[in-house]
Design goal:
single chain; mainly alpha; extended
Length: 118
């Protein structure tokens, strides 16, 4: 029986179909206006936090002010790959070594025939 909460009610999305076609709901205009009106007071509170005795609070206030004034710092990532083949080989060798290390630490439970025990 397919009732509420039943896995049979689940339907996969088709390729290219959005799981949220309507997108995020818009913020109501009266809420936007109230937040805009509170901006001077919020700015004063943030500036007051720069004088806090707590170093973590001061640092966070500085970070928020800088991010609002100049934008978040862009993360710099080096994505250059010079020799993919040797990198791939190196990673495979590391995996092999780790597996060998694990196997070496395991107890050998291979059955031995009585004549092989010596």
């Amino acid at each position: 029986m397919a009732g509420k909460g039943n896995i049979k009610n689940l339907k996969p999305w088709k390729p290219g179909q959005s799981g949220n076609p309507g997108g995020m709901r818009a913020i109501p205009e009266e809420v936007k206006q109230a937040l805009i009106a509170a901006t001077p007071q919020a700015t004063k509170v943030l500036l007051d936090l720069l004088l806090s005795d707590n170093e973590k609070i001061r640092l966070q206030a500085v970070q928020v002010i800088y991010e609002r004034a100049y934008g978040k710092a862009a993360a710099q990532v080096d994505v250059r790959v010079h020799d993919v083949g040797s990198l791939h080989l190196q990673l495979l060798e590391e995996i092999r070594a780790r597996r060998q290390e694990r196997i070496g630490q395991a107890i050998d439970v291979t059955p031995v025939k009585p004549e092989e025990q010596g």
